[in-house]
Design a protein that fits this description.
single chain, alpha+beta, four-stranded antiparallel β-sheet, three-stranded antiparallel β-sheet, 4 helices
Length: 154
């Protein structure tokens, strides 16, 4: 990929490569750079400050389409932090690419076993969780994470 001009103060880290830019998606948002580790984008639609969001911390990526105006991509990460930028075109593709990069970077998956009402039978929930693992629906890591969450409940 040709040299990409990163925003002032940003540099590629070791083993970090640019995956997409706003130009790839056909949008004129500057800067908008997706690497294999970070999303570098404006923090709000006004084009104000720029933020580098670690992909492993991304919790959710959504498209918001107001009645008037352009769609926005909203990226939530960390503890209640979010960034939003306009996506005049290709919003679904941008969202999908950011989601895929976040998954590849090790974004934590959402809980697979639905929470039950307080006072639910933990033994039964653990048994069902074991059945999901045995049937191949859950990986060992997903099983262990869910088991730990259930066991921590009061």
């Amino acid at each position: 990929m040709p040299d990409i001009a990163l925003p002032r103060g940003f540099q590629l880290q070791d083993d970090e490569v640019v995956v997409h830019t706003g130009k790839d998606w056909g949008v004129s948002i500057n800067p908008l750079v997706l690497t294999n580790r970070r999303l570098i984008c404006p923090i709000d639609p006004s084009g104000g400050p720029v933020v580098a969001i670690p992909l492993s911390k991304v919790r959710d990526v959504r498209i918001r389409k107001p009645m008037l105006g352009f769609s926005r991509i909203i990226v939530e990460w960390g503890d209640q932090q979010s960034a939003a930028f306009p996506a005049h075109i290709n919003a679904k593709r941008i969202k999908a690419d950011i989601d895929a990069a976040a998954e590849a970077a090790g974004r934590p998956k959402l809980s697979i076993v639905p929470a039950e009402p307080a006072g639910g039978d933990r033994i039964e929930r653990l048994r069902r969780l074991g059945d999901l693992k045995t049937s191949g629906v859950l990986t060992d890591a997903e099983f262990e994470a869910e088991k730990a969450r259930i066991l921590k409940e009061p």
